[in-house]
Amino acid sequence: MILCRSLKIPLTFERSFHLMVVAVEIRLSFQVRRRLKVNLLLNDNVINLDDHRPSPNSSRTTLQIIGQVANTGTKPFLAQASDNNFYWCKRLHNDHLWQSTVNEVVVSIVGQALGAPIRNWKIIEVPPEFHNHLVKDGNYRLDGTPLFGSQALHNADLDPDPQVFKFVDDDGNYNRIPLLIALLILCNGKDFQIMYDSSAENSIWSIDHGMWFGSDEFPWVLQSENTLYGRTSVPSLTVRIENVHWEKAISAIRSLPKDLSVKAKALIPTEWGISEVDTNRLIEFAYNRQEYAISRLEEFRIRHGRR
């Protein structure tokens, strides 16, 4: 077995010069409005794969292929990982500061606990052969620190101006939207970005949570809901949603597990050097907004619910 040095893909000798093109269509952010095709090319510069296999004791997903870079502030890149999935990978230290990457992890933890529509995510280990690797389109090098990876959607459209929820009456979104609103309010989401998966009845997904926890101007402006900045702006609804779905989201807020700080400590890589005090602040901020989030969803149920 051999490995392409620049792309880290296992090949046979007979196929080592063949071309592999992976087309991934995805909307990026409000700066990029058209579909992107990512072309990953192989070459004949090969090394022994066995020299670079992950440790048998390693449970982390590892980086294998680096693709194109998104034209956004943090310049994440599309990558294939050792689990054969594609992820948008964000560095800890980026142009939006390290807090934005911590936000991604903590929002994902809270979102999963609620059952909100967020993408599967992984901490992606950077193997030694990628240390100091130049990500050319991003104009930065990988320093070996683990990455945050959000699983890519291959047939999804970014809403360029998410002021109104769309495709509300498509199957599944009745249930997903109230849970998404709950997450948005609990974590005081700023720069709200959503995608609709055209291959799955326009299912709604929340992506890119780097500016949540009130971080659009400065990192972690954790103000109370009694302040203007602490009150979360939510897109409008033009279609009514059955009361049972609002009630389900309210119940999910009330039932939020009390061990989320423990989960954050376990899931955030020690290599990041993040203080437990900082992650606890974010989790406690979400807990402290539970009653506020419930009251907001009750308002939505009254105004936009139906039996």
UniProtKB/TrEMBL annotation:
Where the record annotates domain HipA-like kinase, the positions are 64-156
Which named protein is this? HipA-like kinase domain-containing protein
